Structures are given as structure tokens and as C-alpha cells.
Amino acid sequence: MTLIIALDQDSSKASSIVGMLCSVASGFKLGLPLLLEAGAKIACRLRMMCPEKLWIADLKLADIGSTMKLAVSQLVGCVDGVIAHSVVGVEGALGELKEYLEQHGVKLILVVAMSHPGAAEAYNRLLEHNVEVAGRLRVWGVVAPATMPDIVRRVKSFLPETVILSPGVGVQGAKPGDALCAGADYEIVGRSITASSDPLKAARDVLAEQRRRLGECRASR
Ligand code: XMP
């Protein structure tokens, strides 16, 4: 399965989405709006509803190591992975975070490029630096934009063994399968599924389109 659902709404909506989509999603990504509204322990409560899937806290951490460790300590035991920004560097920041997460059995996922147009101003210009950091830290996964498949292709060529998660499908403009065809392992989808009047049908439609596109792009290789 190739679909991770972004949960950015309030906790009652999130819990209804998890109930509906547990059987079709590969995992769930918990966003800051949800975590701020409901508190960190919502991660444990939601996870209990669908324990076999991948649970990721999208904290977008970008701080010194000690502060990042304090933040993630609230989620240890409730999530499989946390997302941090690569640009803060290793020494005194991501190196300490990685060591702490390893001790607690949590995966580190680094943003190496972003999906919105403004990312071209600075963030995505640092792509080579960011993937070098991800490679040096041997992180489990990286986030790269479905809206920019060329970037996903470059990330895949730099980091062939690292899991690539790609947001930007749906409302931000990428089509299901764009990032998978470029080398991503998962597409992260939020509003086009969670705000739909029938989230289960919307998720099944995304999965069907991903399968169709993957069939096409594999056949043309
Ligand atoms: P939508 O509703 O646009 O939700 O499908 C997308 C989800 O992904 C997050 N997002 C990103 N996270 N790098 C990230 O680490 C990105 O470039 C990026 N773009 C979108 C967004 O916060 C939402 O949860």
C-alpha cells in the first residue's frame, strides 16, 4: 500500500477518519493543528484504533537538539516516526535528535524539499545539502514534494535505499501516482480525502489511480 493520510483537523474528525480509513491506508501523519488542539496523547489514542499501520508525527522540528528531544519525548511509544527539517544541521541538532530517537525506537524522517511554490526561494535550493545530511544520518525516510517529481527523482538517485514520502497530491496540484512514478514509496494525502463527503471512496479512488499510473509508468520503463 502506498497511501498515508494527513490528519490536520480536530480530534473528533481525525478519529472518524482513522475509523473509516484504517483498512485502506498505509499509515497516518498527525499534523500540528491536531496535536495542538488535542495534546500529544491523541497520538496514542488514535493509534490504538489502527495499531498495525505507520504512525508519523509531523512536528516539522527545527531547533537545537535538546529542545527537539523534549518535544518528541511526549510522543515516544505513540508514533513510529517523527518529521524534522534537514536545514538545521547535524551537530547540536539533528545528530542529537537521531541518537535519542534510535534509543527509543522511533524513526527519523527529514524534509529535504518542500511542495509549495515558495520552497523554490531557498529551501529547495539546498536539496543536495539536505540529502547529504539525510544520507550521513542514515535516516529511515525523507519528505520530498509530489508537486515536483523531478526533485523526487533526484532524491531517489541520491538516496536509493531511503523511504521517500511525498505530500502535495490533490489540493496542492499533484496527481495520484506522480510521485510514485518518480520513485516515492508513499504519497501523503490530506484534504482531498479528509474533506471529501465520502473519505473512504476518495481514498479508494486515489489508490486505484496510483495503481493505474504505476502500471503505466512501469510498463514504459
Ligand atoms: P494536503 O491537504 O495538501 O495535505 O493533501 C498535505 C499534508 O502534508 C503536509 N505537507 C508537507 N509536509 N513537506 C512536509 O514535510 C512538505 O513539503 C509538505 N507539503 C505539505 C501538510 O502539512 C499536510 O499535512
Describe the fold and architecture.
- This protein has 221 residues and is α/β, with parallel strands linked by helices.
- The protein has helices at residues 11-21, 32-38, 42-49, 65-73, 90-103, 127-136, 149-158, 178-181, 191-194, 199-219; strands at residues 3-7, 27-31, 54-61, 81-85, 107-111, 141-143, 163-167, 186-189.
- The chain has an eight-stranded parallel barrel with strand order 1-2-3-4-5-6-7-8, surrounded by six helices.
- Helix 4 runs parallel beside helix 5.
- The longest helix is centred in the C-terminal third of the chain and has 21 residues, at 199-219.
- The two termini are 21 Å apart.
- 43% of the residues are buried.
- The model has no long low-confidence stretch (mean pLDDT 97).
- Bound molecules: xanthosine-5'-monophosphate (XMP).
- Xanthosine-5'-monophosphate is lined by residues 6, 8, 31, 58, 83, 111, 114-115, 143, 145, 167-168, 170-172, 188-192.
Largest sheet: 8 strands, parallel, barrel
Spatial order of the strands forming the largest sheet? 1-2-3-4-5-6-7-8
List all distinct small molecules, including ions and cofactors, that are bound in this structure: xanthosine-5'-monophosphate
* % residues in beta strands: 15-25%
Share of residues in helices: 40-55%
Tally the beta strands.
8
**Helix segment count?**
10
Roughly what is the average pLDDT, rounded to an integer?
97
End-to-end Cα distance: 21 Å
